[in-house]
Amino acid sequence: MQEIIRARVDATLKDKFEAIAKSQGKNSSHLLREFMVEFIDKHEEQAKRHAETLLAIESIEAGRFVEGDEVFAWLDSWGSEAETDAPECR
């Protein structure tokens, strides 16, 4: 079920937005839906990254991490016959 969202904007902004939508072969409602989906996706990705960052900080503060040299050695092994498994946190 579709719902209606209303926003007050000045006439110049509305006219420019409608002109851009028309130039893309879309109506303003279609273009606004695209923008909203893109905005929500971006916001959700940022929130996910923020939560992952907080978890990483907690891990570091608790002493659970992998030394950089171990990570680089693992990455260097990628694609070689001596490829190793990912290092594990201690």
Provide an overview of this structure.
It is built from 3 helices and no strands. Helices cover 63% and strands 0% of the residues. The N and C termini lie far apart (51 Å). It has helices spanning 11-23, 28-61, 68-77. It has a domain at 11-65.
Tag the structure with descriptive keywords.
mainly alpha, 3 helices, 90 residues, elongated
How are the secondary structure elements laid out?
Blueprint: H1 11-23, H2 28-61, H3 68-77
Helix proportion range: 55-70%
Tally the beta strands: 0
Radius of gyration: 24 Å
Largest sheet features: none
Helix/strand order = HHH
Mean pLDDT: 95
Low-pLDDT runs of 5+ residues are: none
Secondary-structure-derived class: mainly alpha
Gap between N and C termini: 51 Å
Strand content: under 5%
Number of continuous helical runs: 3
The shape is: elongated
Entry summary:
This protein is an all-alpha fold.
